[in-house]
């Protein structure tokens, strides 16, 4: 196809609908299964979580090295013997994280010592294996014990977060739940199963009531739930301090701010015997995760919670009351957190103290956010935080690493997970957060360059047409046509250029001149200036 034809259709050669020589190149190439899999991994949360831990532990390694006195001493003569400093850095980091693993998951040296003792006593086979596993897996049981109330409380926080409410009152709700369950546990004398159930229900009701106060203030007066729940935390804290100084909670032991021990009928049963602290509250934690899934994904009230959290106005138009839903959300969340306090007192602490809540209430907020307010994510995040807590204490006692560094690692993990674009940028996957941006830019560039080529081709074709018309007029025997070289161009083109719609072109020939043939014009244009000179 000639250049003139391509210009007449308004597109460059080989581009657009006017070209029939070859089909345009496809915009998207076929993706292989491996490429699609890699894209799903890059866009998923698993990669972000894994790399968040990697970056957090790398920064924690730097802090461990800085805190190590031996490493600082070897750095003093680093230029003379760099191998000493590198060796000290490696040993400091690996021993610290090794101690964390021993204190949180599996104690290898403890396993070996227990097995050796049994062998020296004449044992063999399972007589060696069971005591050795008991010693080696003891840290894991502690991780489960610490993570049990954390998972239950985080499930309560997830209910409020998914409903669009920021419940910061986990500490207060856990304290009142623990106070109610502890009081029922040591003050009443009930049958064994009934006593335990009564204590758990007391914790649930107390926590629900405490959360319902913030919900009522939100629904009735529009009070901000963040401020009200924080203030309720302080009220519950000082209420506990006051209660532990009264005869009702202290009993005969009024010299110390602790309550009597919970009766045996109200204690959660031990799962691995008296030598371990792991109790049946672990099953309650698993049940809380299942309850969270059913409540928010399968129940009508959970649908109302999510609808109000997504769009309160649309929910109100659909007949869902946002104020009533806010009250129910905080009451349900408080009930779950109160259950966590009851499990913590009846299973682990077994008495009330001023520090019975610890950091569970605030850690539950982090666990819920880290687990994306989902049941599986909350369970994994709760066990992770429990492992960091138990492993950090062992790391501090065994290696002398400050426990504060463990908290720094926890904060860094949450920081990185809360900012997935930051993690993807650090690992070179920044474009994943803007899928198709590169392809769109390339298509825009190709379209722009194609338009430029089309414009150039159109200009060249117009110049060829003008040249051919001039040559035709020069060789014409009609004086009027030759005179048109110096005057206005006659014919339809002149009428169109002048804007006259009904103007008739002046012509001596009754039949209109079809003008130069495009193929002839193209041939003349291809011959260049020599062909024009010869024709003149």
Give a topology summary.
Blueprint: H1 3-8, H2 33-43, H3 45-67, H4 69-75, H5 82-104, H6 108-120, H7 126-136, H8 138-162, H9 170-187, H10 192-221, H11 225-243, H12 247-250, H13 281-297, H14 300-310, H15 312-317, H16 322-349, H17 360-370, H18 375-399, H19 404-417, H20 420-426, H21 437-474, H22 479-483, H23 492-498, H24 518-527, H25 529-535
Helix pairs in contact: 3-19, 4-5, 5-18, 6-7, 8-13, 8-14, 8-16, 8-17, 8-18, 9-10, 9-11, 9-16, 9-17, 10-11, 10-16, 13-14, 13-16, 13-18, 17-18, 18-19, 21-24
Explained architecture:
The chain is mainly alpha-helical and 536 residues long. Helices cover 70% and strands 0% of the residues. The chain is built from 25 helices and no strands. It has helices at residues 3-8, 33-43, 45-67, 69-75, 82-104, 108-120, 126-136, 138-162, 170-187, 192-221, 225-243, 247-250, 281-297, 300-310, 312-317, 322-349, 360-370, 375-399, 404-417, 420-426, 437-474, 479-483, 492-498, 518-527, 529-535. The longest helix has 38 residues, at 437-474. The two termini are 28 Å apart.
Short description:
By secondary structure, the chain is an all-alpha fold. The chain has 25 helices and no strands.
Descriptive key words:
536 residues; mainly alpha; 25 helices; 0% strand; disordered C terminus
What kind of sheet is the major sheet? none
- Name the beta content range: under 5%
Low-pLDDT runs of 5+ residues are: 1-20, 26-30, 485-536
* Assembly classification: single chain
Which percent bin holds the helix content? over 70%
Round the Cα radius of gyration to an integer and report it. 40 Å
Overall mean confidence score, pLDDT: 81
Number of helices: 25
What's the total number of strands?
A: 0
Query: Topology as H/E string?
Result: HHHHHHHHHHHHHHHHHHHHHHHHH
Give the overall form. Answer: extended
Give the structural class: mainly alpha
Alpha-carbon distance between the two ends: 28 Å
């Amino acid at each position: 196809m000639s250049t003139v034809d391509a210009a007449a259709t308004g597109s460059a050669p080989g581009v657009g609908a006017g070209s029939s020589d070859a089909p345009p190149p496809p915009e998207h190439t076929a993706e292989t299964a491996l490429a699609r899999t890699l894209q799903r991994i890059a866009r998923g949360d698993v990669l972000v979580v894994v790399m968040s831990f990697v970056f957090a532990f790398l920064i924690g390694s730097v802090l461990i090295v800085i805190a190590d006195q031996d490493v600082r001493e070897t750095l003093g003569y680093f230029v003379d013997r760099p191998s000493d400093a590198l060796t000290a850095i490696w040993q400091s980091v690996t021993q610290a994280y090794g101690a964390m693993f021993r204190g949180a998951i599996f104690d290898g040296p403890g396993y070996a010592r227990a097995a050796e003792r049994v062998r020296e006593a004449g044992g063999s086979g399972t007589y060696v294996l069971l005591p050795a596993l008991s010693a080696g897996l003891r840290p894991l049981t502690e991780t489960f014990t610490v993570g049990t109330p954390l998972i239950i409380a985080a499930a309560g926080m997830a209910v409020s977060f998914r409903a669009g409410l920021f419940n910061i009152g986990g500490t207060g709700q856990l304290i009142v739940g623990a106070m109610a369950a502890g009081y029922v546990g040591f003050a009443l004398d009930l049958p064994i199963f009934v006593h335990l159930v009564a204590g758990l229900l007391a914790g649930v009701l107390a926590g629900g009531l405490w959360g319902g106060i913030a919900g009522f203030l939100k629904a009735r007066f529009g009070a901000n739930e963040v401020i009200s729940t924080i203030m309720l935390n302080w009220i519950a804290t000082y209420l506990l301090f006051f209660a532990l100084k009264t005869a009702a909670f202290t009993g005969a032991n009024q010299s110390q701010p602790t309550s009597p021990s919970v009766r045996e009928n109200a204690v959660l049963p031990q799962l691995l015997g008296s030598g371990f602290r792991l109790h049946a509250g672990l099953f309650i934690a698993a049940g809380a995760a299942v309850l969270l899934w059913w409540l928010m994904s399968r129940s009508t009230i959970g649908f109302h919670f999510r609808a109000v959290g997504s769009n309160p106005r649309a929910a109100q138009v659909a007949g869902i009351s946002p104020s009533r839903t806010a009250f129910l959300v905080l009451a349900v969340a408080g009930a779950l957190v109160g259950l966590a306090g009851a499990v913590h007192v009846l299973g682990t602490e077994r008495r009330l103290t001023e520090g019975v809540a610890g950091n569970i209430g605030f850690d539950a907020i982090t666990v819920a956010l880290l687990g994306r307010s989902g049941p599986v994510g909350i369970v994994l995040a709760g066990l992770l935080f429990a492992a960091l807590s138990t492993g950090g204490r062992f790391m501090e006692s065994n290696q002398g690493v400050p426990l504060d560094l463990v908290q720094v690692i926890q904060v860094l993990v949450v920081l990185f997970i809360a900012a997935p674009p930051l993690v993807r940028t650090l690992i070179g996957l920044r474009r994943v957060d803007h899928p198709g941006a590169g392809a769109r830019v390339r298509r825009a560039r190709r379209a722009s360059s194609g338009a430029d080529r089309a414009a150039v081709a159109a200009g060249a074709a117009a110049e060829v047409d003008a040249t051919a018309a001039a040559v035709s007029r020069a060789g014409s025997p009609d004086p009027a046509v030759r005179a048109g070289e110096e005057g206005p161009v006659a014919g339809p083109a002149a009428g169109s250029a002048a804007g006259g719609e009904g103007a008739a072109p002046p012509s001596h020939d009754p039949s209109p001149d079809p003008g130069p043939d495009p193929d002839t014009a193209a041939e003349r244009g291809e011959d260049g200036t020599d062909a024009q000179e010869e024709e003149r």
